[in-house]
Write a structure and sequence with these properties.
The chain is α+β, with helices and mostly antiparallel strands. The chain is built from 13 helices and 12 strands. Helix content is about 35%, strand content about 25%. The protein is flat.
Length: about 350
Amino acid sequence: MTQYRAAGVDIAAATRAKELMTAAVRSTHGPAVLAGMGAFGGCFDAALALAGMQAPVLVSSTDGVGTKTLVAAALGRYDTVGQDLVNHAINDILVQGARPLFFLDYIAVAKLDPVQVAAIVGGVAAGCRAAGCALIGGETAEMPDVYAPGAFDLAGTIVGVVERDAMLPRADVAPGDAILALPSTGLHTNGYSLARRIVAHHFAAEGYHARPAILGGQTIGEALLAIHRCYLPEVTALRAAAPVKALCHITGGGIYDNLPRVLPAGMGAAIVRGRWDIPPICQLLVEVGGLSEQEAYHALNMGLGMLVIVPVEAVATALATAPEARLVGHVTATPAVRLVDEGE
């Protein structure tokens, strides 16, 4: 055993991990990828990718999946969090109107397990492949003493592009504009510290393996690991069919913190209770955890995955284009986001 390995870093394991993930990573590459795995830096042919665009604007975002990694580690399932990471990032740049070009990931572990890391990167590659996004690089760091045994962290950076005149939000968002919602698949990648606390306190015996009736046969762990949905296909279709003025990805901070980010100064929103389905896992956490409405909608997405703002006259077209969407509210002339009852 080398002294480096005795100190907790296994170079041979890192080499094996790269071997296991190579095919998945390369499956995301197209002709614009000039250098990927093995290079010191990923190289992407911008001239090829942006050909035909008049005024391309690059849009980038960096994020992670938070403590959802602890749920994955507890259940020994690592094939979904990579997709979560990519889909979250795609949704974030979608809000600016951008389509994804390429992605880079970062995985940090206490002790490198090649099969575990390959499963995580395989999920990242699957998310990229589904969205036509190239995975051109990343980093896997073995960091003993920094991370607890069995723990890992996962983050990534995405770069996308949009024509300047197609950027969102548009400047003409106005009071009375309709707010539609595309449903979430569950918690997505936010609220997991709260969810884990509630599960540990109220389901101490079975933990993530508990099967509350409200989940319809699913375990809590399965519901919590539901993949963060990517809204690229639906948003692309909606923008082709209707004059979308703004989008809002409901992540940490819920509707209260995220919706104001895409509204003009001085405007707010009224979201009407009961107009959409709340995911069973959200209902469970609210009921068992005794969460107030304010906290629930601040910490969780409560089923509102992506909000879409369109003129009232475009609602019928938008709903026909995305039948799962729901008309959930409207923009108001007064600041703040409010939950209201039907008719208010």
